[in-house]
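Anyone else keep sequences and structure tokens together like this?

Example one:
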Amino acid sequence: MSSTRSARVKTSAAPAQKNTQEAAPKSHAIPWYARVGMRKESEYLFENLSTLLLSGMDILQALEGVKNGIRAKRLVQALNEIEEDIEAGKPLWSSLERTRLAPQHITALIRIGEETGRLSENLGMIVDQQQKDHLFRSRVKSAMMYPLMVFVLALVVSMGIAWFILPRLSTVFVSLDVELPLVTRVLIGIGEFISKYGSIVVPSIFAVIVFIGYILFVHPRTKHWGQAMLFTLPGVRTLIQQVELARFGYVLGTLLEAGLPLTHALQSLHDTTTIRRYQMLYDHIRQGVEIGDSFQRCFDSYAKMRRLIPIPIQQMIFAAERSGNLSVSLRHIGETFEVKAETTTKNLSVMIEPILLVIVWGGVVTVAFAVILPVYSLLGQGGF
């Protein structure tokens, strides 16, 4: 590293020796809200840091090389502080913890890597884990994207018909001297209402839908309501269970294999998942392990355990814990359910498509009947 930076570190340390009451320099710790959009930058950081360390670079050269490819100013400032800490003799994990640059389990893995001389290998595990977590999240999102797009498109088309077409049809049908069917009268009423108040009603409907979606699936304190709704859908519930079991096996197995204590690994597993039911399960297991309980006792004492982890997988975990091969078995579980989740994601779109087509067909048939029935009634009375 350049001599100017070393000089800056030494000179900044001198006043501290003269006046111990002086406040410590401000740390560019990255707050949680600033880390939301930095996931790709973080993945780039650890991926390239692992590669450069494996190539033989020392940690300072590797950090300087990685920093040149990062655009986020907060992240660059944090890396500058980390470099200064390392030049002052501090370990990498300590600087990461102080700057809050990485989650707790990643900091723990780096600490173990530094203490055991396996830093580059543990960084590789971190990169692999981040990629797996991104894959797990994307599979659930991709399974939900198709039905969401169809729903939005159907809603837009329905609003367009109600706003522009139904008012014109109502004008025609009202002028006819014929008794209108119930479905036609309902659609005419909707059309007249939207014609008068459409500029208020339509934006309000979309705003309410967005607000409900935010409350059910985004807001941290209420999104478990939306998750509970998803668990009532058979195909979606299966996909969520498979994704969570893949994460459970891979993350926990990887952390245990790297040497992280079981309680810390369970806490890290809790932090990586977003499904509240599984977060509560992992908390329950961690608390049981802390007082000396086995996995079997923790599982047996948890209500509705079968809905979260199937009995064959539970038996596999019990056997692996007794034989001392828990990390290997967990990783095997993760690989197995990763393949199953990929298959379920593909099949779910095929299963949902006919259901959505039936819903759209029902709407089209309803409008068609509302238009055709008055015409048949008029023909029956000899109106033409």
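And example two:
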Amino acid sequence: MNVRVASVGLGRFGKRPEGLIDLAAEAASLALEGVGRKPIDLLVAGTMLGHGPRGPFAFLPRLAGRLGLESATGLRVEAASATGAMAFHVAVQAVETGRATRALVVAAEKMTDRPTPALTGELVAALHESEVAAGATMVGLGALVAQRYLARHDLAPERIGAVSVHDRARAALNPRAHFSSPVTATEVQESRPVALPLRLLHCAPISDGAAAAIVERGKGPATVLGLGQGLDALRLVDRADLTTFPATRRAAQRAYEQGHLTRKNIGVAELHDAFAPFGFVHLEDLGFCGPGEGAGWFENGWVAPDGRLPVNPSGGLLGRGHPVGASGLAGIAEVALQLRGEAGPTAVASKPTAGLAHSMAGLGAQNFVTILGSGEG
């Protein structure tokens, strides 16, 4: 592809006093400053839960007005917790096909202003209505997947804590992360049960935050090499195997093929680990290791900044935070920063030439894989 990430903007994730538009405008302004505020002819914006006191509101025109981009064209997209990734893919395709010269992608979420029960009720919109009618929640179904995975591979429940420990250690170095302190395996295992085997520190936090990126024609250190999307049955009961996410496998295959790459070319990865055991599953589905081998990768330090494959150097969803609509774009932005040599304290040991960002909608019904790299050769 002849499309590159020219600039990114990331605000701090966590409990923020600002509203949704303020958060989005902060990240967007940082990205615009990175390109000297060059003209933007397409604004692609996304949020999963964004609404005003009277329900859904005009997020896109409100943001365009705030940024002074009324002369641009615009699109608002939504794909549950993969909204940010979808927004990026839409913008890249518009620039690649010549429909736009330079696009600003923004994804944002405001979550901490809602009571937890109300927020839980909104998040289940990503599930099948029959599951919701039966009382299912996102964490409840996540626990079911975790139970099946542990049973299939004969793993003790405490082993999933390795992902939480890893992410929180990385987040402690990230000034934009929701959490600033590491945790121990004992602290994870002794945290409050939520839906066993998942405990509180196995689950991504409720966060506010936004991410932005400028996409334009040309090549550079963060050129778009491959985009992939995959779908799967919405209801878990309709899936043949709960220990893998076929939508990730399909998305990865398409992204690798488009970029003429294999997993061996990837030097850094940002994974959608909303629940700790999903870190194992994603590593396997993306082809980095075989079924049941993900735990060993975390326990042996192979995903550390100086390991075989640095994973979630930003802290991932468990450490950086999970403002649902923004997380997919944040992962892409973090990979771009690594490739551009702008990651600062979260930089991996060896500057990669290609990186992968993975994003998942709901419980894996619509997943995205984005590969960025030098665009050379």
